Amino acid sequence: MKKTIAALAIFVAVAATVSIVVFRWGLSNDFEKNIRISNEVPGNLIGNFKSFDTSEEVIEQLKIKNFDWKVTYDSRLPAKDPRPEFSEYIIRVTDFVDLNYKGTLELKFINQRLYKTVFYPVNYSEYIVELTVKYGAELNSKKSVKLSDTIKVEAGKNYKNEPYIKWVDTLLEKEIAEWVRRYS
Fold this sequence. Notes:
Layout: H1 2-34, H2 55-64, E1 68-75, E2 88-98, E3 101-110, E4 113-121, H3 124-135, E5 144-146, E6 151-157, E7 163-169, H4 170-183
Antiparallel strand pairs: 1-2, 2-3, 3-4, 4-7, 5-6, 6-7
């Protein structure tokens, strides 16, 4: 009797484990098929950078232009994690120049695709005026400006109260939010 109960307990434990793996695998395939956005819809971010650029493509551009850059964040799920890929990667560029204004640029990637750029110009007040002229819309911390169907730009301040301008691919941002909603 004890052997039968022990065998039954082992069978239930194995069956439960298999069910969880199959369930997660099913969600993973569903995520891959229905949530991931095609990489054929890049949008212009800052400078020559486009959403969906890979980190390798961006690093090559930075090297060609002799920018001083470094990786400041690199996070990946463990290899045995059953969830779909979710890797984050951030490159920080010092002395980046946009519209003749110097500053620090952060390039943020999700699953090796550029989805956000954040620029901290040295002369924020003059730079924001230049962007307002370029985009034909006033940028401030209370609203974002939609540049295309997939790209928005907005002004703000970080936790250190440093002013910035960020460009975001809204499709990739939605993909991130959906991943977090389903798997975190």
